Input
Amino acid sequence: MKGQKKRPRTAGIALLSLLLAVVCAGLGLTGDGAGGGVGVVRAQIRPGAINKVSPDLLDQLSKAQAGARVKVIIQPGGAVAPLALDTLLRNYGARIKNQLRNLNLRVIDLPADAVMKLAAQSEVRYVSLDRETKTFGHITTTSGADAVDSGLLSLGTLDGTGVGIAIIDSGIDTHHRSFMNAFGLSRVAVNQDFTGEGRTDDPYGHGTHVASAAAGNGQIASGNYQGIATNANIINLRVLNSQGTGSASALLSALDWVIANHTLFNIRVVNMSLGMTAVESYRNDPVCLAVRRLVNAGIVVLSASGNNGKDSAGNKIYGQIHSPGNEPSAITVGAANTFGTD
Output
């Protein structure tokens, strides 16, 4: 961990199902709907299409300049054949960036003025903006590990042995002593990068902290930083870059990987101490839909709630749960108290 680096303020950390989900402040996409430009949406709104486009994408389209392109996530409609869908996308000038076959999604960029035309087609169920993703969590003294250790873990059996925990975050320092087993070997079983940076370590420092809260072995600092599932295997899926930011498409790529590999690595728990502003119903949000796929496959998914409980003036704000924490099938973790926070 890089103790000198500033972190977003935290809302707190809580435990559930052998995993500690870390919750802290994050920023999301905002938009006031104002601005100049061509006004792509206003010129091309179609009754059958507007309900198939996410609100933040509509806002961005309304301010798009001539010739602008946007990166979006496509949910196919009905039983459209993959080849037919890809042909349709290319006919509208799309460049296919990624095909998430297990989640049946496409990540594309296309001309802004083609979005509404594409959304009107029956082969397309929904079009979402590829949103920015940020971390929720940093070092805190309120992890609750001691309370758990005096309870369930005192039985000596619930230490995560044989269980794979996927940490979807900013990477992990795999050489850290906290992740060694009794024989001095690393318990980090898999390292995958989805950021495009070609690295799986943790220059930002967030994912290492999250992984240690979930599965740290307590070999340092007299056990003061021991995690919960102290002998679990760790699956390091890096979706946040060196600045601690990422994209919805990178997060979806990691979730798609989990669907394909959860049996091989016995992944029973997925932790996402990150998220983005929830701008649409969980019924349409592609990340929420992906989380539900994991839960239906028997995987426990934990997500941070975010930290928008108060505005800058200290006034309480309700209903500010971030995506994918707003997905009902996820276990969404918020603060139990304000100790060690603002």
The helical segments are 40-44, 55-62, 82-91, 115-119, 145-149, 206-215, 248-261, 286-296.
